């Protein structure tokens, strides 16, 4: 394989076979320049697995990820699909079923620690089951878990043990959903890393997957995280990412609004209550995203004058790095309980007994949709 820039013969990782590169740590094949003198040369992800029994996260774009997924259908595989409960629709791999064939799928729903402690988990599980059916995803088991709090992981491991048999385990998911934490737990429980990472890659796998040997001769297949451009976590700067992605349980913020009122979520998104009787709306966003109420007729002016200052995050210098806003209008029928969801930022629950006409403004390309209420 030749280097695409200068045409020279590329160095390959002796662990997974990926072409080595020294410029982009977040992409497959990265190794620091100073490590190029090692013999053999291995990428940073393989190095961390081999020496520290832990995987590091790397990412690929959507087209490349779909190419990797297409390899799984012909394998004897158990697929663990990990998603982010806070950004469920944004992190779910659409169309996964057609890639995995008849192989069993376990859905690991991560970040349950972000929901309020009074949450009814049976209702959440039922909600996830309905969403999977809506998206055409067949699952053998759905496991609610928290990588951060180590909740539900024992049950997940028991479920893996029940379905693994003589299969390899493929772990797939979007970026920032907790995939590396899951991989690392699987390594600790199943893998004897006194043996080297396989040099001759498992037959049929591509160069962007890392094969982690298990005690019984099978493998955990660590796939790169897919980058979905419709998620807020892929749009904001690293500086603002910590503000957008919550790391503590969400504290629902309830607003009684009259028609013609607007809520700003920093300068990240805006909710308009256009028409309907006075009613309550519950907001689920990270604590560092400030919510500001104003009149709908003043909303454009307020944003123009205060985006990045009164309305933050993001800060003023990062406002211009986001796409222009697009308006999404929703009519919620009488008696329905719906969430207006913004991928990677959160959602507004419409507690409508009377019906409501609402709109969400968010950067162009960010996934915005109406869904049955999660909680």
TrEMBL record:
Q: Which InterPro entries match?
A: G_CP_dom, GTP-bd, GTP-bd_ribosome_bgen_YqeH, Mito_lipid_metab_GTPase, NOA1/YqeH-like_C, P-loop_NTPase
| Source species, domain of life | Bacteria
Domain CP-type G: residue ranges: 66-229
Q: Name one Pfam family in it.
A: MMR_HSR1
Any one GO MF term held by the record is: GTP binding
Checking PANTHER family in the record gives:
GENETIC INTERACTOR OF PROHIBITINS 3, MITOCHONDRIAL (PTHR46434)
Give the matching NCBIfam families. GTPase_YqeH (TIGR03597)
- By what name is this protein known? Ribosome biogenesis GTPase YqeH
Q: Which organism is it from?
A: Paenibacillus rhizosphaerae
Q: What is the lineage of its organism?
A: Bacteria, Bacillati, Bacillota, Bacilli, Bacillales
């Amino acid at each position: 394989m030749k280097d695409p820039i200068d045409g020279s013969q590329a160095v390959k990782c002796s662990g997974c076979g990926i072409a080595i590169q020294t410029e982009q740590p977040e992409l497959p094949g990265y190794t620091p320049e100073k490590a190029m003198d090692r013999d053999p040369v291995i990428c940073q992800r393989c190095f961390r697995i081999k020496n520290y029994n832990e995987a590091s996260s790397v990412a690929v774009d959507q087209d490349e990820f779909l190419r990797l997924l297409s390899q799984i259908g012909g394998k004897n595989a158990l697929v663990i699909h990990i998603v982010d409960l806070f950004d469920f629709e944004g992190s779910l791999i659409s169309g996964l079923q057609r890639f995995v064939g008849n192989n069993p799928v376990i859905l690991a729903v991560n970040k349950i620690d972000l929901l309020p402690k009074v949450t009814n988990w049976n209702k959440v599980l039922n909600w996830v089951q309905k969403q999977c059916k809506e998206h055409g995803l067949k699952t053998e088991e759905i496991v609610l878990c928290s990588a951060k709090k180590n909740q539900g992981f024992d049950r997940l491991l028991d479920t893996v043990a029940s379905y693994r048999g003589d299969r390899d385990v493929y772990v797939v998911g979007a970026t920032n959903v907790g995939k590396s934490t899951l991989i690392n737990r699987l390594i600790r429980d199943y893998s004897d890393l006194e043996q080297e990472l396989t040099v001759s890659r498992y037959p049929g796998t591509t160069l962007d997957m890392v094969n982690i040997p298990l005690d019984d001769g099978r493998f955990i297949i660590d796939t790169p995280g897919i980058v979905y451009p419709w998620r807020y976590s892929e749009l904001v700067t690293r500086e603002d990412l910590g503000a957008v992605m919550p790391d503590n349980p969400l504290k629902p913020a309830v607003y009684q609004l009259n028609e013609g009122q607007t809520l700003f979520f920093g300068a990240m998104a805006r909710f308009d209550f256009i028409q309907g009787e006075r009613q309550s709306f519950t907001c689920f966003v990270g604590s560092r995203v400030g919510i500001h109420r104003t009149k709908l007729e003043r909303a454009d002016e307020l944003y123009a004058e205060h985006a990045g200052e009164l309305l933050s995050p993001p800060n003023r210098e990062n406002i211009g790095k986001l796409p222009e806003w697009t308006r999404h209008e929703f009519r919620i029928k009488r008696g329905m309980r719906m969430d207006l969801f913004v991928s990677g930022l959160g959602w507004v629950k419409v507690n409508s007994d009377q019906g409501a006409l609402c709109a969400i403004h968010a950067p162009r390309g960010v996934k915005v949709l109406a869904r049955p209420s999660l909680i």
